[in-house]
Amino acid sequence: MEDGQEVGLSLTIIRFQSAQLTLKDRPVRITLFSRRCNRRLGTRMWRRGANLEGATANFVETEQLVEYEGFTSSFIQVRGSIPLLWEQIVDLSYKPRLSIIEHEETPKVIQRHFYDLSQRYGDTIVIDLTDKRGDEGDLSNAFAAEMDRIPGVRAISYMLDVALPSYRYVHFDFHHVCRGGNFDNLQALYNQIEEVIQKQGYFLMNSKGEILFEQSGVVRSNCIDCLDRTNVTQSFLARKSLDSQLQRMGALLSSESISLSDNINDIFKRLWVEHGDELSLEYAGSYALKGDLVRYGRQTLPGLIKDGMSALSRYYLNNFHDGVRQDALDLISGYYTVSQGSSSPFHNGGFESASYLPVASAIIVGGITATTFTLSQVGRNAQHFISSIVCAGLTVGVIALVKANGKQFCSRPRLCGLI
C-alpha cells in the first residue's frame, strides 16, 4: 500500500497523536494517524450508508505507527458505514427508524465500494458489529445478503471455521457477546480472524530503510455509527498487532505483551480513547461511548454517567443542529456548488416548523404544570377538575401534534438530497 496511491479514495489527515514510552529501558514511540475520506462527508444522521459511487459515510483510515531501535512499523485499519443505500431521518425520537432504500444500483454500489478497497489495500475482511435484532438486524441481514452476491465473497459467522477467500464478511453481535461490558469477549472474534490478520501482516522497515514486510490486506470494521463499538474493536485488534510488531522488533519476547506493563498499557489505551473521542466529535458532535471498555476493559459508574451525557448531547445536536452543520459541510466539500446568478437555494418566507418547537415545548410544560396545579385544587373547588381535564387535553393534543410531525420540527439540511 503506497501513500501516493489514489484508487477511488481521497483521504485527508484529520488527527495525529503521538506518545513516547519506555520499554525495557529503550524508547518506543507510538503514533496514531486518522485519515478521513472526503467523498461522503457529513453528520451522523444526515450521512448514512453509501452513495451511488460506493463512497461511505464516516470512512476513516487509521494507521498505528511504531518506532523502536531504528525499526519502523505500521498497521492500518479502516472503518465506514454499511455500504448500502439507507437512511435514518431524525424525528425527535431517541432512536429513529432505519430505512433501506430500494434501488436497482444497490449491487453495483457495494461492488464499487469493495473494488476501491481491494485496489488500495488488497484482501479485505469485513467485521460487522451490528445487532441481529430489530432494524439493525434487518440492515445487517441485507448487508450479508449483498456480500454473498459479490464474486469471491463468503459470509461467515463467528464460531465457524471455514475457508478464507479474498473478501470475507464476519458478523459479530457485539452487544450480545460483550454484554455487561465484557471487553475480553472480543477474544472470541479474534480467534476467528487471527489466521487472516497474521496473513495480512503489517508494514516493517529496518534502520537501513529496507522493507522487511508489507501489509497485504485490511480489516474493515463497522457498527451503525462506526464510532463506539467500532473503536473498541479496532483498539483490541491494534493491541494484538502492536504485541506482534514489538515481538518481531525484539522489544518483547514471543510470550510477552504490552499488557504486562501498566504504564505502557495505559498510554496505549489513552491514545485510542482520545482517537475515538475525536472521530465521534466530528461525526456525532459528542464524545465516544464505551470509552471505559478501551481504557479499563469494563464499564465503570463514572463512565456510565459520561456515556449518558454524551448520548443526550448526541440526541440534541442530531435533532436541532446537524441540519445546518450538514449544509456547511456540503458547501466546504464542494458537494453543493453555488451557481453564479442563481437564486438562493433556501426558501425564505414559508412555514418553518422548527421555529415553532419552543412554543410547542412551552405549551406542553405549561400544560403539565397547570394540570398538576388544578388537580391539587380539586378538593377545594370541583370546577378545578374541569380545568384539569381541559389542560390535560390541550397538553396531550400538542404532544400528539409534535410527535406526528417530529421530522418537521428537526433541523434539516436544505442544500442537497440524501444520496
UniProtKB/TrEMBL annotation:
| Presence of keyword Cell cycle | no
Single GO term (MF): phosphatidylinositol-4-phosphate phosphatase activity
What UniProt keywords apply to this chain's record, in alphabetical order? Membrane, Transmembrane, Transmembrane helix
Q: What processes in GO biological process is this protein linked to?
A: phosphatidylinositol dephosphorylation
Q: Which domain of life is it from?
A: Eukaryota
InterPro entries reported for this sequence: SAC_dom
Segments spanning the bilayer are: 385-404
What residue stretches are annotated with the SAC domain? 16-285
Of the GO CC terms on this record, one is: endoplasmic reticulum
* The protein's name: SAC domain-containing protein
Organism, scientific name: Paspalum notatum var. saurae
